[in-house]
Amino acid sequence: MTADIVLRNVTLPTGRRADIVVANGIVRHVGAPVRADETIDCRGHTCLPGAVDMHVHMRGGVQAQKEDWHTGTMSAVAGGVTVVVDQPNTIPPITTPELLRARICEAEEEAVCGFAVNAGVVPDADLTGMWDAGAMAFGETFAAPSSYGEGLDPETLKELLTRIHALGGLVTVHAEEVSDRAPATLAEHDSARSGAGEAQAVRAVSALAPAEIRLHFCHASTAASVRAARGTVEATPHHLFLSHGMFDADDTRARVNPPLRDEETRRELWSCWDRIDVVASDHAPHTLHEKGVPFETAPSGIPGVETMVPLLMAAVRRRRITLISVIEKTSWKPAAILGIQRAGFEPGDRADFALYPDEITRIDASCLHAKCGWSPFEGLEAVFPEEVVVGGARAYTCGDLREARPAWYPGQGYLSLQNK
Ligand code: DOR
Ligand code: ZN
């Protein structure tokens, strides 16, 4: 057997050392090495399956000043993320198969890693058309208003969820309760979109959704929301690593929906780490210029696709969480929820990997690849990958992109039509 690439001396999550032989983007064999075009020695590094970030806003189009598919996916790869799932609250929002296909074409031309695109959930959206055209999932579905997304009332939401269930689709939900007051500070923003309100909204959506629907809650920011969720639940690095007290009271960069909470709430969220299915970044970049307005009118959203796994890897190095829990929540579980072949260490697995050194460094926004050029995680401990393999090819080595490997991951609606 010849191979495209062999990863030598990989320490598997079980602790066993092995060589991973890759051909045509797939793990062929785990054990002894064979001859290969390229070899990577993994000694001194921890090898993780590539992460699947199931919640990113790659912007582009008329919002390309914030981010585009090239910079956004460069940022992903540099952070060990090899598949991203784009949210449909673009301008215009993705509500028809034509818009979905155009979005996929834009990504095919510019992306440097795997990608999928979700369908927008609004009353007049062509849900069936988008499902057949390859939407990965439906949502994020706004059960409350947010940047570039209007909230749906319970009736409408129930009706849309029933239609998505009939298609066999996965629905992802942004659940919050929002008061009318325009907040002037991060603490007021936290009260205006309270943790208790979020948990209540999660309970309400859980109750009105059809019994067997594939339901996923985005960015739970409190332990109560995690516990209230039916289906699967996601948490973000910003709700795990940041609280609003870490910023000046009116720092618009830290304005995000759901809001950053207080320190006690942040710690409580960690206490239900085991119940969190997925960590996803909700990478939602805005420029510093756009953030440079009074707090009341500043857009919500922060960048984070590149720093997600590095922050978690620093927590692994500090022995706060286990390596296997990070692999589960950033790679295996999201792949399983979405129905994407998993990346990993068994023959037949998708050959997406990232190699992390032992040393902990600190986040320096000037070294990141997102277009917006800033990070709310500046100065926090992190471990960045030195080598990233995407689709069985060496895509990123010590800061340099070597090869762009865009690959579209269609959802189940499209796949079932192909198999007919
Ligand atoms: O803070 C947020 N920003 N929350 C969202 O739900 C949307 C996002 C965005 O697209 O900017
Ligand atoms: Zn959201």
UniProtKB/TrEMBL annotation:
Residues 48-356 form the Amidohydrolase-related domain. Belongs to the metallo-dependent hydrolases superfamily. DHOase family. Class I DHOase subfamily. Pfam families: Amidohydro_1. The keyword Hydrolase applies. It catalyses: (S)-dihydroorotate + H2O = N-carbamoyl-L-aspartate + H(+). This is Dihydroorotase. It is an enzyme of class 3 (hydrolase). Keywords: Hydrolase, Metal-binding, Pyrimidine biosynthesis, Zinc. It comes from the Archaea. Binds 2 Zn(2+) ions per subunit. Its EC number is 3.5.2.3. GO terms for molecular function: dihydroorotase activity. It comes from Methanoculleus nereidis. Zn(2+) 2 binds at E140, H174, H219. The active site is at D282.
